[in-house]
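Readers of this paper often ask what the protein records in our data store actually look like. Nothing more is needed to write down the fold, since each code stands for a local backbone conformation. Below, we set out a record of this kind in full and without editing:
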Amino acid sequence: MDVSAAEPTRSAQHPGVEGPITIIANRKSGTNARDADAIDRTQAVFGAQSTDLRYWDPEQDLDALVQDAIDDGARLIVAAGGDGTAMAIASAMLGTNCALAVLPLGTFNYFARGLNLPEDPEAAAEAIMNGYTRDISVGMVNDRVFLNNASLGIYPAILKERETVYARWGRRRLMAHWSVVKTFLQFQRPMHLTITADGETCERRTPLLFVARSAFQLERFGLTGGDAIHHDQFALLVGRGTTRSELFTLAWRLITRTMQEGRDYELICARDVTVKTAKRRALVAFDGEKTRDYSPFEFKMSDDTLKIVLPTDKADSGNAESDTTE
């Protein structure tokens, strides 16, 4: 998502948020000493006396936790974590009058970086305090919110395999890479998809459908589609490749940022998209999370808006230049 360039549906700008602040941290990902120290430092920036820190366990009802914070007077809720945490809290806040800010504590922080927030949590807190709010529309797939991307095919399979590998060998970067290789080695055949984009229908055989809402993420990997996002559309990247060797080639080109539209993927730009898979159910990933859901998959912009905090200074905030896949 690129809110600095896009003009979202029913957009509105306001002065900075005033009032009580609630920080919601993911207990599963925010328990290490580094994150705890970062939250302590950002509380000092926000004002410890007026900041309420609440921990969320993914087994808890996040909607109820967010509503409790709003009922207690919160005017700003800060999501402390990575893209998955930001996505979950944004989903609970959609349509409310409370503003959302993101404290980047995850591995990739694509959403926070797309907002031009610094990756240093303390600097991000300063930028939030000096920022302003804007109402935006967010992407949805079968009524589930996503902020950066959603996908079908090989990528959700990689995420599933990664969980298995992590459970056995631990959360190490080498294991993440091995999960990619193992998934490719197990690859059988591409998906058969029927894609209807803004009323136009086409049939495609592909190993991957990637639906993007983050121009920042596309730019970082040298992929096209940013203009569609600037015009509040989805950028659909339909991968080309039917064999394991072609998948490895695509992966290498993605890592080296040499993928080309037309040769490696087809780009479809649309606001309303329906994707029907040959199988009755399929694995879908959204912002790093995943679920098995029934076809067809409907991608659309949210009717309700999300009020987010943007930094006033949109200059380069020192984000890192190197990335790996989410």
Q: What stands out?
A: The CA atoms of residues 34 and 105 lie 9 Å apart.
